[in-house]
Amino acid sequence: MNNLKIGILVSIITILALGGFYYFYSKNAATTQKPKLEQAQGTKSNFPSATASAALVEKKQEAQTNFPASQPETGVGQTQTEGVGIQIESPASGAQITSPATISGTANVPNGIVIKVEDANGQILGVRKAEACFGYNACPFSVSVVFSNSNTPEGQITIYSPSLSTGVPESSQSLPVTF
Questions:
Q1: Does residue 75 fall inside a structural domain?
Q2: CA 128 to CA 126: how far, in whole Å?
Q3: How far apart are CA 173 and CA 88, in angstroms?
Q4: Helix (H, G, I), strand (E, B) or coil at 151
Q5: Which end of the chain has fewer surrounding CB within 10 Å, N or C?
Q6: Is residue 14 part of a domain?
Q7: How far is CA 123 from the centre of its chain?
């Protein structure tokens, strides 16, 4: 019977010890989770409140209504671009040309240039593509264009910059010539 009493006493002590450990563990777990909960609630409070949003809108409106006393003059502080477009310098208007014809001038266009030699009927006799610059100043070009014989004594040289999206001439210069 003594052994039975000792067994029951050891069982009760073990159950109490396990219960105590569980109590302290759950109490410790609750205190370590509490800062996490407060942190999550703190995240919510970091969102702007309705009054803070209204104050921010008022500040933006005040900044927008503070116009300068006078506006700057047109063109002040802006970079001016010189010689935009295409200018043919040679041959002269109405000059007689033979194949190959050297055509020179200046261009300030974004997409390069296309040089066409056409007769009076609009038939294309020769075409040549060339690079051009696009910046503050126009840059020179000089291109030799080989073209076929014309059925008419007159024609024209057309230089244009094609659109990248459609190929339609954006900037164009034409010059009458004779053959």
A1: no
A2: 7
A3: 7
A4: coil
A5: N
A6: no
A7: 41
DSSP-assigned letters across all residues of 77-140: T-PPPPS-EEEEEESPTT-B--SSEEEEEEEE-TT-EEEEEEETT--EEEEEEE--B-SSS-EE
Q: What is the pLDDT of residue 58?
A: 61
pLDDT per residue as tens digits for the range 16-52: 888 888 887 787 766 665 554 444 454 555 555 555 5
Instruction: Give the pLDDT band of residue 123 (cuts 50, 70, 90).
Output: very high
Q: Which of 100, 105, 96 is nearest to 172 (CA)?
A: 105
Q: What is the pTM of this model?
A: 0.52
CA distance linking residue 80 with residue 89, whole number of Å = 23
Under a CB-based contact definition with an 8 Å cutoff, are residues 133 and 108 in contact? yes
Q: In Å, what is the CA distance from 172 to each residue of 26, 85, 119?
A: 85, 8, 17
Instruction: Please state, in angstroms and rounded to a whole number, the distance separating the CA atoms of residues 175 and 88.
Output: 8
Count of domains observed in the chain: 1
- 46-66 burial: b if 16+ Cβ within 10 Å, else e: eeeeeeeeeeeeeeeeeeeee
CB atoms within 10 A of CB 179: 19
CA dist 163 and 111 (Å) reads 7
CATH of the domain at 116: 2.60.40.2550
- Whether residue 103 is contained in a domain is answered as yes
Closest by CA to 177, choosing from 128, 139, 129, 125, is 125
Structural domain span for residue 142: 85-178
